[in-house]
Amino acid sequence: MTTVETRLTEFADNNEKPVGYGRMLRKEDPRLIRGQGNFVDDVQLPGMLHLAILRSPVAHARIKSIDTTAAAALEGVVAIVTGADLAEKGLAWMPTLSNDVQAVLATDKVRFQGQEVAFAIAKSRYIARDAIELINVDYEILSPVVDVRKALDPDAALIRDDLKDKTDNHCFDWETGDAAATQVVFDNADVVVTQEIIYPRVHPAPMETCGAVALFDAVEGQLTLWSTTQAPHAHRTVYALVSGLPEHKIRVIAPDIGGGFGNKVPIYPGYVCAIVAALVTGKPVKWMEDRSENLMSTGFARDYIMNGEIAATKDGKILAVRTHVLADHGAFNGTAAPIKYPAGFFGVFTGSYDLEAAYCSMTAVYTNKAPGGVAYACSFRITEAVYLIERMVDCLAYDLKMDPAELRLKNFIKPEQFPYTTKTGWVYDSGEYERGMRLAMELAGYDELRKEQEERRARGELMGIGISFFTEAVGAGPRKDMDILGLGMADGCELRIHPTGKAVLRLSVKSQGQGHETTFAQIVAEEIGIPPSDIQVLEGDTDNTPFGLGTYGSRSTPVSGAAAALVARKVRDKAQIIASGMLEVSVADLEWEKGSFHVKGDPTKSVTIQEIAFKSYGAGDLPEGIEGGLEAQICYNPSNLTYPFGAYICVVDIDPGTAVVKVRRFIAVDDCGTRINEMIIEGQVHGGLTDGVGMALMEMIAFDEDGNCLGASLMDYLIPTALEVPDWETGHTVTPSPHHPIGAKGIGESATVGSPPAIVNAVVDALKPFGIRHADMPLTPSRVWETMQGRHVPSI
Amino acid sequence: MQVPAPFQYARATTVDHAIELLNEGGEGARIVAGGHSLLPMMKLRLANFDTLIDINGLHDELGYVREEGDEIRIGAMTRHRELLESDLLAAAFPIFRDAEHVIADPVVRNRGTLGGSLCQADPSEDLSAVCTTLDASCVIRGRDGERVVSMEDFHRGPYETAVGEAEMLVEIRLPIRPGGSSAYFKVERRAGDWAVASSGAAVWMSNGVISDARVGLAAVGPNTTGIPAISEALRGRAPSEELFAQAGALAAQACSPAVDMRGTVEYKRHLADELTRRALRKSVERINEQGA
Ligand SMILES: Cc1cc2nc3c(=O)[nH]c(=O)nc-3n(C[C@H](O)[C@H](O)[C@H](O)COP(=O)(O)OP(=O)(O)OC[C@H]3O[C@@H](n4cnc5c(N)ncnc54)[C@H](O)[C@@H]3O)c2cc1C
Description:
The complex is a heterodimer.
Chain A: H1 4-10, H2 29-33, E1 49-55, E2 61-67, H3 69-73, E3 77-82, H4 83-88, E4 93-95, E5 101-103, E6 109-110, E7 116-122, H5 125-133, E8 136-141, E9 170-177, H6 179-188, E10 191-202, E11 211-217, E12 222-227, H7 232-243, E13 250-253, H8 269-281, E14 285-288, H9 291-297, E15 301-312, E16 318-328, E17 357-365, H10 382-400, H11 404-411, E18 420-421, E19 427-428, H12 433-444, H13 446-458, E20 462-471, E21 483-484, E22 487-488, E23 491-497, E24 503-507, H14 516-528, E25 535-538, H15 556-583, E26 590-593, E27 596-599, E28 602-608, H16 609-617, E29 630-636, E30 645-654, E31 661-671, H17 678-697, E32 729-732, H18 750-766, H19 781-788
Parallel strand pairs in A: 1-14, 12-13, 16-17, 24-25, 31-32
Antiparallel strand pairs in A: 1-7, 2-6, 2-8, 3-7, 4-5, 9-17, 10-15, 11-12, 11-14, 15-16, 18-19, 20-30, 21-22, 23-24, 23-29, 26-27, 27-28, 30-31
Chain B: E1 8-11, H1 15-25, E2 29-32, H2 38-43, E3 51-54, H3 59-62, E4 65-68, E5 71-75, H4 80-85, H5 87-92, H6 94-101, H7 106-111, H8 114-120, H9 126-133, E6 137-142, E7 145-150, H10 151-154, E8 155-157, E9 160-161, E10 168-175, E11 180-188, E12 195-206, E13 209-218, H11 228-234, H12 241-254, H13 265-291
Parallel strand pairs in B: 1-3, 2-3
Antiparallel strand pairs in B: 4-5, 5-10, 6-7, 6-10, 8-9, 11-12, 12-13
Helix pairs in contact in B: 11-12, 12-13
Bound molecules: flavin-adenine dinucleotide.
The site of flavin-adenine dinucleotide (FAD) has 30 residues of chain B, from strand 2, helix 2, helix 8, helix 9 and strand 10.
């Protein structure tokens, strides 16, 4: 096990800053840990007004009338705006990221509890909040559609009567794989295991809630919007398309962001309300939602009911996987995913195994719940896919009475099979699965753990060992396949070296805590030998960064990281030509050593990148055809996704009397290809593993039968604390991506994706003496105990 | 930021001053102690008050744990953290430290008070069960002076206590009896969460026989802070696993939990049983350790 001593020596030492990849402290941390960050709620502008949103108290109702008189009369109130007011401006509805529409303010009906109904603009946040209490809305209550399984019943209330010709709550159907071929394999298989698996609705719950400050300069016709966004450029384009304001007159600024996890990918009604308020009042307006608003109304994650089927030979060769998924999309389809992928990248549900066939069909429905379906380390639904396959493999191991590690080892895609095209059409770039699995087993002491388990079982103790092995598809994505609302998922990047050899790198992505200011400086440093501390990383402001689609789905390093490396190489190429002039040799006679060029065979004749930079702006002629300055720009279009993978092993103990689960150990071996900063990677892994403990053991946005959200505060919606997590034990292998310029694959979501199945598999394994093969998350003490009693666990 | 409705604020300088302010404020006035129950309700606008009377200035007067004669007396403004850290209290009544270890988190414990906990009378709140188990009495002061009521009389039901409109709780008194010990067990979904169920026990023994025992539960319905039937079943008996099981079964019968996100009715009943056994077992263990 990792001890405190060994961990201390692994800490970054900033006295030995790497010029390139390596462990170093984060450049952004001095600001953040001293409370000197600048978040949206820190923005204060002269004369700024405040906005508060009135939300629906019920899940489904027709709005009969809205009386705003008392609210408008409250001292300090500037204006009250309702859906009808927005409708006059053509702004009552807006597009979602999935080509559906969503109400900015409800005009006809409210369709989920917490939906935006009206807003107050006032001189202070307090007055705005008091004012909305005085708005009187007369609702005619309609029957809510809460149970996703009943959403398509003929007598279910129609939620989306705003859509033309809509007669039911059907949202979309989707399928992937080969149904007929899969059927044949299932018909001929020795063993078929079926299991219904529920991934409950959870919430990203970033520490900072969503908000915006809108400033409209009527003279210049210029809108500036500070907002909590993971994708400032995409948001600006959408605002331009929706509002009719010209795009060059809109500036979106994402300042420091206090966590996103996908929650800050969509455009929320609140942002639009803030813009409208600024236009209406001519004053800057701030909107900052409170915790309950964030939990009740913003993008949730998951909410899939998956019927899994797995076919195998009796000696454990997995042949095929099949699933039907019932997806709850809430009242509006706000899923954030590339447009051709309505189920995100769920198609990777075939996992890390070499199969003969696979098929998935999906039915997505509307319910009277908050829209979204984004997030929790967004992952484009890979979290659900990995959970399905890793649970199904364990169910198979249970039925075959096989060791789950052995079963996985037997079925992995082999290193020589890469690039490997899955039965659902994904081209996995590289992988050495067995190596990762064996390392995790070694770190865990797998065989000894199994022995210990046997001894404990004999004493009536409940100990479980759970394994998951995941493959992710991240770094969206190739523009031929992937776009969001018509915007291709390629990323721009600009690098300028100043005369003194310091640099500024401009990115299209936007950190929400991932450490971009450090990682991207290190990527550039590795390529051109300027120390990371000399490289300023700018992002988040559409006026001074190039276009790109933002940070989510672990795409920053795979896409913008590639862009940063390539733009640095472009600069280096130009530097080489300038160096050839300075050293009076031909370009081909120069050799690059990190930070300088020297003449081949004569290392004493050399120029540093800093000297070249000065020369590029300095006196004297440059080589023929070379413009002054040292800068470049690029737009990187990935040729494929990258496919990080990992092997996780979890050990749990369950108190047989109370059914309380304790995660004793967790071993995480990750392979994210080339590793840029180990410390940041470990931080991402630790955070994701903690997320996983939350989802596996405690998190769920539940609803009562009237559609009331039961998770509207952090007293009700539990997120894990340091006390629920063990001392994480991490390890790694490195299998670079062959098509990525630096071989990096992305790490942001690996642990979130990989850990829930490991934990659930461990709990189910602990319960083996009770004859249990499956239990649904969250595995609260009550659910575990009910499972031990052989009772089917509560509804969602 | 969750924003409460407008309210007036007054800061009391003495207990008499607080009572005066309560009297002036009438029905719309409320005391705020640690604020960890009151303020969340106000921020969620589940409760609005015209005036808050802040008694944090009374910590000097009402923040203490001291032994007087055969009693331990605790001031109403004593914070969770002080209860947790008091060696005097832990030696006499280990149940207090057991409970305080699992009440909320350090942030809440730094502010939340014994008085606030008992006066909030939340059915999931832990200290009412602890105090009832220890046979505490409560000192209530009003304009006409003080009165002392037993925990049974103090705790009138969920969110309801014997404290009248212009009155406040000032002190809790716990009788010390020889040959006793106590323990508290709680199951929570996560550290800092309210109980799924808790059980506290206090046991007194002489000559190897239980001379008296009290059990109180939290979070499993009304009227479970003290369960007389268990005391009757245990008195005069030698401790044994069978006896604890019998007490556990009585605890499960005595409660009336409701299903919620924390658990099913059956599970909570099971916990009432299981945790009662554990609390009794531990109490007896501690008595035996003292004896040794
Ligand atoms: C996140 C969180 C988790 C928690 N978890 C637990 C838990 O696990 N177990 C548990 O038991 N508690 C828990 N609590 C509650 C916590 O213990 C509170 O501090 C306590 O219940 C109230 O104490 P207070 O001093 O904060 O009271 P306040 O909130 O200030 O007041 C509560 C009520 O008591 C009244 N009041 C206060 N003092 C007096 C007095 N001297 N005389 C008359 N009336 C008075 C007030 O007017 C108010 O009505 C939790 C609270 C939070 C925020």
